[in-house]
Amino acid sequence: EAVKELQKYKNKGFSSIADDIEDGGGISTGPSRVIKKGEHELDVELAPPARLDDFFDLLKLINKANLNLNFTTIAVCNSVQSDKGVVNYFNKTIAGLRSWHYTENKKQPRGFVVARCEYAGVHHYLIDVEAKGTSALSIAYITQNSGVEITIKELSLLMTRFAREHGWSVLEKGGYAKSWKIELHDHVRKADLLGVLAQRIIKRMSK
Q1: Which spans in 23-179 are helix H?
Q2: Burial level of 95, CB count in 10 A (0-12/13-18/19+)?
Q3: How far is CA 60 from the centre of its chain?
């Protein structure tokens, strides 16, 4: 069943991203504010996207299969609370992009979910992005080599770069490959295959 809308979200937290985001400029995590290119608002009502249900189900399977694991969804940018967890949205305006970061109807930015779990002294992350049409991106499993927490600012920058690169090839750049451990897992849509993927991720976390 699709993620149900709990309420209508009048969004006032979407702002444009400056050309140079390396210093974090223009990343919106709250009310709209003036940045290098001025203030922008996305005047639409947002509802949690339906195409993230499989990912929420995957998190539930992982947490249920191993009681020592507790993946929780976290707010990164432009976040809303759905009945299954926190859903984030790309900013309305991202330099160099026209519509890739929007849903196919082009009425709102695509959603994404970031889940975090601290286990055995290591912070583990799973990230999934809303599909566009029939094209689904891989689920990313990420930890830092040091095992420490990835900051919200770093995650915001990662997702903006992700959009600019049209996918997870961004992880091959910017030093990510040197400082992070990264695995990409293909999307699965059937319940039995979700269980297999959940066990695969649990096994990976135990290494």
Answers
A1: 53-65, 152-165, 176-179
A2: middle
A3: 17
